[in-house]
Design a protein that fits this description.
The protein is built from 3 helices and 4 strands; from the N terminus they run E-H-H-E-E-E-H. The protein is mainly alpha-helical. The protein folds into 2 domains: 8-44; 47-139. The strands form 2 sheets. A two-stranded antiparallel ribbon has the order 1-3. It has a two-stranded antiparallel sheet with strand order 2-4. Helix 2 (47-86) runs antiparallel to helix 3. The protein starts with a strand and ends with a helix.
Length: 139
């Protein structure tokens, strides 16, 4: 293998797969639990109250989505800053999921610019999602 390639870390790959499987199982459990709760709640309240409750829950969920986008945008901006400082990718100490070619100089700076653009997009989406969430929660 070329010296400019960082080999994939099998342990990181295994941990990532395990985390994704647990997250998928938790998401399925949440959806099924919400469905059961919604059926029971709909039987107890009026349609108007159900609509108001659902708006509030959707508002909370959208605010949480906004927070996730904000965290993702912050992470992308932090990575871009570190790549710009070191002019290298992957960063020292990285344990990639797959074999990754080293980028230096202008190539690394190009990646940093893309990450900055992604950070801006994620922050804009965070603001939109949070705005929708707040609006739905207040209606």
């Amino acid at each position: 293998m070329e010296p400019d390639v960082i080999r994939a870390d099998p342990r990181t790959r295994a941990v990532t797969l395990a985390v994704l499987l647990v997250a998928a199982a938790a998401a399925i459990a949440c959806v099924l639990g919400f469905q059961r709760w919604l059926e029971a709640h709909a039987a107890r309240v009026s349609p108007q109250q159900l609509i108001a409750d659902l708006r509030q829950w959707i508002g909370v969920a959208m605010t949480a989505v906004g927070l996730c986008f904000l965290l993702l945008g912050g992470h992308a901006a932090r990575l871009a800053r570190r790549i710009g400082q070191l002019r290298s990718w992957p960063l020292p100490g990285a344990r990639p999921l797959r074999d990754t070619r080293m980028l230096h100089g202008d190539q690394a700076l190009r990646l940093a610019r893309w990450l900055n653009a992604a950070a801006i997009l994620a922050i804009v989406l965070a603001a939109i999602a949070a705005g929708i969430g707040v609006r739905l929660s207040m209606l």
